[in-house]
């Protein structure tokens, strides 16, 4: 069946999928009723407060992972901990709300949740570590830098709103750079005050957030998701001018300015800012939420469209590789696709940077997912047929909702960029082994697949992987199956050969081969070799005719064993692809 390019206004179907936590994407985040430090160890404290702390942690090596992780490759994470005895029920609910929402949000500019832990003393969430500081730490910004940040932020907001989530506390301090790199991407964090909404229950009344980015309707206690767009406008104003639009030393005067929507562009810094940027801000810092741009419309503003993302030469080379990777991934078994989702979810920025840039290119409207239409347009540039495009899209869209999400895309393309080391496969196996029995059984697969579970699908996985037919998948069976290559034409399964890092022996398109395009060059080579050989024989008979440069003796014509002429390489003979 042809995948449909879903209409962006069709929120119900999107939200029905989003609201179902028990999808494969939702089940990637682990939930444990145990002590977090059984699985992780603390590296350092990042911050402490009256209710809890934020720490830097790393995974303990244990179980199948023991001894597999190479030194220097251990990944660090952020641990947000709330001490239950110090807080009220409301604060506990806020953290549980954050966990619930983060498990379902899969966007390149939204922080990732990896694990949650709850016991009698504390509630913990293990998240992606953003080490580059928040937006306020890099002020001031150029207009190009502010544009890029705003576009990424709006992409995340559009993704949230389309899935019925409003953040309600967007501010500079809740937008982090993922690394210390000057070109680092941003991540939206802190979803404790976020709230789910529906079309028929879209009005909120609770006064939450931070005053300097708070919309006037929030202050009045009657607002919708459009409050987030006001906050985006304020953030953009600060990025461009290094000043707040509603500033005063006294709170009551700040509120007065917000309620009047009283701000201007009189600061000297605005003289060098484009009129398009100023118009963008006035479209968001707009008193009437019905006139205020929505996130999808803001993404189409001429200021944001003036920036076209250009892929680097390196990323363009990667793009040509990933198309074959997508076709190969489509042929993977259900178990391997599932395992790759777990691996992709915990991939580092360095591993996926190029893949993320390509994902952004495919996601033309920057709403955080790739539709069938967007995917087809990208694939047709590389001469894939309609049938191949349909096949690839259907197989990469694991939950079948008509979109390719970020983690699905990374899972489908990751093997084109990195070799999946065994320690990562071991961790994926342990996560899929939900009851910690040391095996993956049918109940584990039912839990992992969630809404995508069918008895037939589990039977298929068992038939493919459970070699000894004992009704469960061992680690050895899992590892062997992951490293198998399926020949789609013959149906045979081959074990993957080890890769070589030495490219010196590779032939390119200019190699000398029988009947090839370099035939005339081969003839010239043979004639030259014959002349040199004749000269060598004459000098052997009469040394006085030898060249002062001492030309070496070579064979009269190339040996049949020479690699350049179709045989095996023969040591001592001239082989060249540049003759």
Quick tags:
4 domains; 6-stranded mixed β-sheet; 14 strands; 11% strand; Transferase(Phosphotransferase), domain 1; 21 helices; Phosphorylase Kinase, domain 1; globular; 579 residues; Recoverin, domain 1; alpha+beta
Structure, described:
The two termini are about 55 Å apart. The protein has four domains: about 30-130, Phosphorylase Kinase, domain 1 (2-Layer Sandwich), CATH 3.30.200.20; about 135-305, Orthogonal Bundle (Transferase(Phosphotransferase), domain 1), CATH 1.10.510.10; about 315-495, EF-hand (Recoverin, domain 1, Orthogonal Bundle), CATH 1.10.238.10; about 500-579, no CATH class. The protein has a six-stranded mixed β-sheet, with helices on one face. The protein has a two-stranded antiparallel ribbon with strand order 7-10. About 35% of the residues are buried. It has 21 helices and 14 strands. With about 575 residues, it is of the alpha+beta class. The longest helix is centred in the C-terminal third of the chain and has 23 residues, at about 520-540. Helix 12 crosses helix 17 and helix 14 (about 370-380) packs across helix 15 (about 385-395). Residues about 1-10, about 15-20, about 485-500 and about 545-579 have low confidence and may be disordered. The chain is globular and about 75 Å long.
């Amino acid at each position: 069946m042809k995948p449909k390019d879903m209409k962006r206004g069709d929120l119900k179907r999107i939200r029905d999928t989003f609201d179902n936590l028990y999808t494969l994407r939702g089940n990637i985040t682990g939930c444990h009723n145990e002590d977090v430090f059984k699985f992780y160890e603390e590296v350092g404290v990042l911050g402490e407060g009256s209710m809890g702390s934020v720490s830097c942690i790393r995974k303990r090596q244990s179980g199948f992972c023991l001894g597999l992780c190479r030194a220097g490759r251990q990944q660090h994470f952020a641990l947000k901990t709330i001490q239950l005895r110090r807080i009220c029920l409301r604060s506990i609910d806020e953290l549980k709300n954050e966990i619930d929402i983060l498990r379902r949000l899969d966007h390149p500019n939204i922080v990732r949740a990896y694990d949650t832990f709850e016991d009698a003393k504390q509630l913990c969430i293990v998240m992606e570590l953003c080490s580059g500081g928040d937006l306020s730490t890099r002020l001031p910004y150029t207009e190009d830098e502010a544009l890029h940040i705003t576009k990424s932020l709006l992409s995340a907001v559009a993704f949230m709103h389309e899935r019925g989530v409003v953040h309600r506390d967007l501010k500079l301090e809740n937008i982090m750079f993922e690394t210390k790199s000057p070109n680092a991407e941003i991540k939206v964090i802190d979803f404790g005050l976020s709230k789910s909404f529906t079309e028929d229950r879209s009005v909120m009344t609770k006064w939450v957030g931070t005053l300097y980015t708070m919309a006037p309707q929030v202050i009045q206690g009657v607002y919708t998701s459009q409050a987030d767009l006001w906050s985006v406008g304020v953030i953009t104003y600060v990025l461009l001018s290094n000043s707040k639009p509603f500033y005063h030393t006294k709170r009551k005067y700040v509120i007065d300015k917000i309620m009047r929507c009283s701000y201007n562009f009189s600061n000297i810094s605005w003289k060098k800012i484009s009129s398009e940027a100023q118009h963008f801000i006035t479209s968001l810092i707009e008193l009437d939420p019905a006139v205020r741009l929505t996130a999808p419309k803001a993404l189409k503003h001429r200021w944001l469209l003036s920036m076209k993302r250009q892929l680097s030469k390196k990323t363009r080379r990667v793009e040509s590789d990933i198309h074959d990777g997508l076709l190969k991934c489509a042929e993977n078994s259900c178990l391997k696709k599932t395992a790759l989702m777990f691996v992709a979810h915990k991939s580092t920025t360095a591993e996926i940077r190029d893949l993320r840039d390509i994902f952004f290119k495919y996601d033309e409207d920057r709403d955080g997912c790739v539709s069938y239409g967007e995917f087809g347009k990208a694939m047709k540039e590389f001469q894939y047929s309609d049938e191949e495009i349909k096949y690839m899209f259907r197989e990469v869209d694991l939950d079948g909702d008509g979109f390719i999400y970020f983690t699905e895309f990374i899972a489908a393309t990751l093997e084109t960029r990195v070799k999946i080391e065994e320690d990562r496969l071991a961790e994926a196996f342990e996560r899929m082994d939900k009851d910690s029995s040391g095996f993956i059984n049918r109940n584990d697969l039912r839990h992992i697949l969630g809404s995508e579970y069918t008895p037939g699908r589990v039977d298929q996985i068992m038939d493919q992987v459970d070699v000894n037919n004992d009704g469960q998948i061992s680690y050895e069976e899992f590892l062997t199956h992951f490293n198998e290559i399926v020949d789609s034409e013959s149906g045979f399964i081959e074990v993957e050969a080890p890769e070589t890092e030495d490219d010196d022996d590779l032939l390119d398109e200019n190699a000398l081969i029988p009947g090839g395009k370099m035939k005339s060059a081969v003839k010239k080579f043979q004639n030259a070799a014959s002349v040199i050989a004749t000269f060598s024989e004459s000098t052997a008979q009469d040394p006085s005719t030898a060249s002062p440069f001492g030309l070496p003796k070579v064979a009269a014509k190339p040996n049949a064993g020479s690699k350049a002429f179709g045989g095996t390489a023969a040591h001592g003979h001239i082989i060249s692809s540049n003759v």
